[in-house]
Design goal:
28% helix; alpha+beta; 6-stranded mixed sheet; 3 helices
Length: 140
């Protein structure tokens, strides 16, 4: 046996595939939903991307990976509109919840104002800031 420090996308994909295979063996069939990626993109009149949101769904939940709105159009409600789009998609996909993380220098209050609740915090990460984990449940 030999352990080697390296980064190869092919090897990383193989390890990920094996963990997913193991996880799927543990779950009952009714929980085995497809692993799907979705995004909504906000474009201005010149077709430039000025915002967007990326999400991943599986096991009847959605994970918000990234939400970004250009500084020039922040405060105009586009972030909330993007959130609404993925919430509608989550309900359509029969997701039980949406979860995400946000650093204190990002937008945890934005998510709280949109009905998300904090379920965990890593304090002083990165140093001097906090990392918040938030969720919005649909199965209550």
């Amino acid at each position: 046996m030999n352990i080697v420090e390296q980064w190869k996308q092919e090897d990383s994909n193989f390890i990920r595939k094996k963990v997913i295979e193991h996880n799927m063996e543990q779950l009952p069939d009714e929980l085995k939903t497809p692993n799907e990626n979705f995004s909504f993109v906000l474009r201005n009149d010149r077709e430039e991307i000025v915002g967007g949101i990326t999400v991943n769904t599986f096991w009847r939940h959605m994970h918000i990976e990234f939400l970004w709105v250009d500084k020039r159009v922040r405060g105009e409600g586009f972030g909330s509109k993007l959130l609404q789009k993925v919430e509608e998609l989550a309900i359509e996909k029969d997701c039980r919840l949406i979860y995400l993380d946000s650093f204190s220098f990002q937008a945890p209050s934005f998510y709280i104002n949109n009905g998300y609740e904090v379920f965990g915090v890593i304090e002083d990460h990165p140093k001097g800031f906090n990392q918040y984990f938030l969720q919005k449940r649909f199965d209550r």
